[in-house]
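Running log. JK asked me to keep both predictions on one page so they can be read side by side. First protein, sequence followed by its C-alpha cells:
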Amino acid sequence: MRSRFGLALMIWLLLGADSRGETVAPVWTYYTSPPYDLHGDGYDLTTIMCAELTKRSGGKWRFEPQSLPRKRIDSYLERGDQAVVVWVNPSWFGDMDETRYDWTRGVAPGRNEIVSLKTQPVEYTGPESLIGKSFGGVLGHRYVGIDELVAEGLIRREDASSFSSNFGKLLLRRIDVTMIPREELFYLMANERVGAQLYVSEKPHQKYERKMLVTKGLKGVRDYMDSQWDALNEHPDWRHLLQRYGLDQFQARKWLPGPAVWPAPARSADYALSF
C-alpha cells in the first residue's frame, strides 16, 4: 500500500491537476528523522500535507517539499527567498512577536524530553541538573541554559548528527543524558522496544507549539493553510502517521504528563490539529 501511495503522490506533485496559473510555494524542512523528515516514498507528514494543500487549492498553489539543512534555510531567509518552513517555533527564528514572518496557528505541541537510563536516572529541574554529566547534543542545535554551562566547563557536551544517534549512544552508555523531542522519542521507544531501560524526566527542557513559518512574499498562504487543518485531520494517511508517532494522543491545548505514558505504544485516539 505504501509503495503505491508514494508513486501516486509523486505523480500528483509532478503533474498536478492543472499547473497553469499555479504559484509555487517551496516548503522547507530541516528535520532528518521522524516524524517531520521527508521519506523517499512520500509517506510522511510533510509530503502528505503538501499534496493535500496543493489539491485543495484548486490550482492556485503548488506546495513543493524540500529537505534543507537549518543553516541553509537561515541563509535563504536572510537573502529574502520566499518559502514555508514547517514544524518550527517563532522563538527559534528570532521572531517572538511574529512580525518578521507570517505564522500559522499552533499545529502540533512539542516537548523536548530529558532522557537518561533507569540505572542512572536524571530528574531534570533545570540546566543545573546536568552539571557533571555528559550531554548528547545534535550538531548545529542550541540548548538554552545548557550551552551556557557547557561553556563554563560544568557540562560535557558531545554532539551527534541526529537525535536517533544520541538515542543509540545513550543505550550504549557513551553519554549520561540527552534531549529528544517527544514525538521522535515516542517513535524510537515504540520501534526499538527499549522503553524499560529508559528514564524520562517528568519536567521537559522546553514545551512549545510547532507552527508553520510563511515568508511575507507568499501572500495568502498562511491564511489558506490555517483554513485547511480540519480537513487535513480527516485524511486517513495523515491520521495513520499521527498515530504512528504518538501525536494522536495530544488533544487541543492539553499536554500529556511525563513518565506515566512511557513506553506505551501509539493509541488510536482522536487528535485535533488546530489549537
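And the second, directly underneath as requested:
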Amino acid sequence: MSAENKTTLSALPFSASTSQNVAGGGVSAESFQLRNSSELKTLLTIDNRAPFVVLRALRGERLTCARALRSGLATDAFSPQRVALRREGGTWVAHVEPLWQGYVLAEPAPGVTAEDLGAVGQLSQLESALVRRLCGSSHVIPVSEGRIQSGQLTVLFGPLMGLEPLVRKIDRHKRLAWLEPEPGRRIPVGLEVTSKS
C-alpha cells in the first residue's frame, strides 16, 4: 500500500470533523474545546496489544469477521455497534446499530501485518484503547447519561464516564455525543443529557 493510500484510508471509518453543527443548527448542540493530547492519553489505558485494523465488509460484517478469525490472522474481529435512541410515536426507543456501517475492526495476531489482513486502514493506539474501553467484551456501546452544569459535561453513568474531555460535540435532540480521540477523527456515541443549567 502506497503512502498516499495509507493517508486517505487511515481516516476510515471515522466521521470527518466539521465546524458545522451536525444537527443543522439550533440550541441543542454543544461544542467543547479540545484539550492537550498528553492530558487525553492519561484517560485511557494503552496496553501492548496491536492497534485495530479496519477491514471493509463487502459481503456483510459477520462473514468478514468469521473469515478473519478462521484464517488465524486475527485474534479478534467484530463490527462495533452502538445503542442509539430514536423517537417513534412520541416515545424514545433504543436501537442497536453499527457504529461504522460496512466496516469491521480486527486485532491482528502476533506477527501479522495490516496488509496480510487486507486492511483499508488502521486505528491509532489511542483510538484502539478508546474502542476497547467503550465497547467492552460485548462490542456494543450503551447509551451514557449525564448533565451539563455551567457549560461543563458530567457523565453520571455509562461508558463515557471519565471520558468527558474527549467529547467535542453534543446534540441533545439526537441524543448523541461525538468523541474526538485524535484531531479530525470523530466517533458518534449515545448520550442522554438529563439536565442543563
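Observation for JK regarding the second prediction: Residues 25-196 form one domain.
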